[in-house]
Amino acid sequence: MSEKEIKRIVKADDKHFILPVDIRRKRIFWALSAFFVILLCVVAFLLILLLDVARPPGFGGGTISPVANFRVSHYGANNLLFSRPTAIALSSNGEEIYLADTNNRRIVVLDRSGNFVRSITEITSATAREVNEADGLSMQEDDPSLPSVPLGDYASPLDFVPEAFVAPTALAFARDGRWFVIDQSLRMVMFFDANDHLMRGMVLEEEAPINVDVNMVGDYEQLFITTRSGILRASLEGEFNFAYLNWGLLSGQLDNPAAVVVFDPAHMAEEASISTTDTATLTIVADTLNNRVQAFRNFDTAPEVAWMFGQPILAPDVAEEVDYVFENMIIGNMTSPVDLAISPLGRLFVVDALSSEIVVLNAQTGAYLYTISSVGSRDGLLYYPAGVDFSDGDLYVVDRFNDRVSVFEDAPSQPAVESADMTPAEPLNRWFLLLVPVVALLLTIFRLLSLRMPRYIFDLSSLESLGNDDDLLRFIIEHYDRIDIVSGTETVAEKMLPGYFWKIGTVKESKRDDLIDKHPGLNDVEAEAIILAGNKRRRLSYLVTTSRVVERAAEDAKVKVLKYADFRNLAHMIISDDRAVQEAEDARNAAKIKKKAEKATKKEDKATKKKGSEPKA
Asked: Whole-angstrom Cα distance, residue 336 to residue 255?
């Protein structure tokens, strides 16, 4: 009889006959299950964490409202959508949008409506003179009053023409149509004409270029290139005329500045709110790793900080050590300013990447005005924005991790009117999905801990019967680590199986006497066996007996009873099944031995015949 049939008989008789080997198998199974569920929890955690990092964290309860000032989003052409764009610049005539589509290794050109115009991936070279003479274009002159600043090996002219962009990360336009690109992987600043031909370039050897901007300085446009430790200023022809390299976190020092704009009251619109008490030109810098924006007076002669918005994140002891106190600081919340744009009204738009918002300041005073957008994935929300440009009352923002360009109106944020089509249901918080494997793990661990071998308590009658069955004794030795007995029966047990682990249990005399009072037919040993079986100790306990009196008293005390006859019969079924399995195994082994012997005999016979057939010498 198979083990499956035996278990079916046990279940049909509503008895629990469990072998320790079965418990061990189940424990191994549930331990492996717990291990795999733990792996599943780890994988689920990492997957949810990856998905949560790769999406905007700005999801929560409540009704979603439309974003004030939002106009439209552009995602690129259907055949090739934007992938992690990082910079944007409007052409000199304001009719085209140039976008550094970094992961796609290209510059994408759109019209003002967001329609795809062309894609620039390959770089074609031509001299500026040839291109402009052929097309009748004219380039503005450089400021002759500015001196030339030699930078030695810091920057060197481009001695080769790259075939294509690798990682374009910054863009800027001049009024005459020329535009400039930084390819951070190539550590290169490229100069293009209005027809998208490469005129010249330079490689920054010591510090890679971070950003490039074109700003009016007086009556001439100047090129501003930022590096890790400061700012390089050059003419549009690439002749350096000023360098401000001052790395650090103190006032006036810079750490990975990412953008530069120049505020000149003379170039602002008439309706701009300009203070007449201080009309100095300010060079405003996005000091990225110092978590602030700094505005400098007299930038190219004697730079001094006019105002500051934000401050480095410092431990108190470090702040005290460097005496981090500034008279002109404007306390504000700035986490990672990465780009700047300025409107004719004197509004400074600061892209705060980590906060995923556009902070609007007064460019002249640094005073906070309002904030545009917040973190999220819906149209109008931002997720790690990277670039910004302004044109004709509209603000163009590179929404990097949402892979799009978002357009906003330059106006203070106003409460927006909600509509049914703008209030989609909130996405499910992915962390709730982790509850499934966690619950499965808890259930698996609970099941593993609940697998305990039942106790079998043999009373004196069952021990006496056990002594007459040698097969059953061998079965107990092979399959059970211990059997519970009561005090007073150990002599019989030791005589029957000397050296076996008999677990001797004791009970209180008061409990024993109370049970005997209820069932006068019981003796002391029988009463103690019933009480011992009733003490479950967080596991099932079964009293094995041959006495009908003991069985009735145990059932009355709600103690589980396994008749000795049932225990013996079920054990003999397993014994018979084990013998059959062993006999079959012995037969197979004997057949193998016989087969090997036959092969050896045939081999010897063949060798003998071969030897007999050889001619004698």
From this structure: 11
pTM for the structure as a whole: 0.60
* CA 247 to chain CA mean position, Å: 33
Question: Do 574 and 567 touch, CB atoms closer than 8 A?
Answer: no
Q: What token pair was written down for 419?
A: 């509509």
Evaluated on CA atoms 372, 375, 379, 384, the torsion sign reads positive
Coil vs helix vs strand at 469: coil
What residues does each domain of the chain span?
3-18+453-569, 70-433
Backbone angles phi, psi at 48, to 5 degrees: -65, -40
List C-alpha distances in Å: 372 to 7, 65, 97, 284, 395. Answer: 71, 14, 21, 20, 10
| 575 contacts 476 by C-beta, under 8 angstroms | no
Phi then psi dihedrals of residue 114, to 5 deg? 90, 5
Distance CA 14, CA 534 (A): 18
Distance in angstroms (rounded) separating the CA atoms of residues 329 and 310: 8
Block mean pLDDT (10 aa), the chain, length 617: 46 53 80 88 82 51 56 84 94 92 94 91 70 49 60 65 90 94 92 90 89 92 94 91 90 93 90 81 94 92 90 65 56 86 93 92 91 88 94 92 92 49 48 80 83 82 86 84 86 85 87 88 88 76 88 88 86 83 87 87 79 63
What does the alpha-carbon distance between residue 297 and residue 282 come to, in Å, rounded to a whole number?
Answer: 5
Give the side-chain half-sphere CA count within 13 A for 249.
16
Query: Which residue from 426, 376, 430, 428 is spatially nearest to 402, judged by alpha carbons?
Result: 376
The answer to whether the CB of 139 falls within 8 A of the CB of 132 is yes
Distance CA 27, CA 451 (A): 7
Rg of the chain on CA atoms, in Å: 44
CATH of 70-433, one of 3.40.50.2300, 3.50.30.40, 2.120.10.30, 3.40.50.970: 2.120.10.30
Question: Which amino acid appears at position 489 of this protein?
Answer: T
- Reduce the DSSP state of residue 574 to 3 states and report it: helix
DSSP 380: T
**DSSP secondary structure letters along 193-242:** -TTS-EEEEEEESSS---EEEEEEETTEEEEEEE-SSEEEEE-TTS-EEE
- Provide the CA 425 distance to its chain's centre, in angstroms: 24
As a whole number of angstroms, the distance between CA 330 and CA 10 comes to 82
Enumerate the H helices of 54-148 as residue ranges.
128-135
Q: How many CB atoms lie within 10 A of CB 207?
A: 19
pLDDT in tens, 72-124: 999 987 778 999 999 999 998 889 999 999 999 999 999 998 899 999 999 88
Instruction: Enter the tokens of residue 528.
Output: 């103690």
What CATH code is assigned to 3-18+453-569? 3.40.50.1010
